[in-house]
Amino acid sequence: MRVHLCAVGRLRKGPERALVDDYAQRFDRTGRGLGLGPLSEHQIEDKRGGGIEAEAALLRRACPAGALSVALDERGEVLSSPEFADRLARWRDGGANDLAFFIGGADGLAPALRDQAAMALSFGAMVWPHMLVRVMLTEQLYRAASILAGGPYHRV
Question: CA neighbours within 13 Å on the CB side: how many for 127?
């Protein structure tokens, strides 16, 4: 199952970029034998300033047709890392070829895009900077692959 990180904004050189790249590489290595990955990043920018609706249209275009979609949103479902790993495995085993995670910009995601997603996922009740959410998501993807592989990375 190919995984797509579809996000508003460009993550430029710096500590967040280095962390995303590191965890994405770890996920690809660990997930390869599990039928997970590769992880592709799709960064979009609304250069015309059309707001969250314009961003939603660009995110939809960045997402492969037929992909199962997950919206990152503070109102979404909160999962433990093992629950997240189990959800990924169920989607993979259920025949999903592509899984897309949508990360909005400073104003979040358009309600229609969020409502059309198969799931809304939250990293807690706090609001996180959208650039940091990419780091958190790629780390959790790597952690999920490690859990599914029976590796030592995740400690209970």
Answer: 6
Question: Domains of the chain, with CATH numbers?
Answer: 2-149 (3.40.1280.10)
Q: What pTM value is reported for the model?
A: 0.95
Residue of 3, 2, 107, 91 lying closest to 52 (CA atoms): 107
pLDDT digits (tens, 9 = 90+) for 10-55: 999 999 999 999 999 999 999 999 999 999 999 999 888 889 999 9
> Rounded to a whole number, what is the distance in angstroms from the first to the last CA of the chain?
26
Q: What is the C-alpha to C-alpha distance for residues 8 and 10, in angstroms, rounded to an integer?
A: 7
Burial 104-124 (b: 16+ CB within 10 A, else e): bbeebbbeebbeebeebbbbe
Q: Which helix (H) or strand (E) segment is 18 a member of?
A: helix 15-31
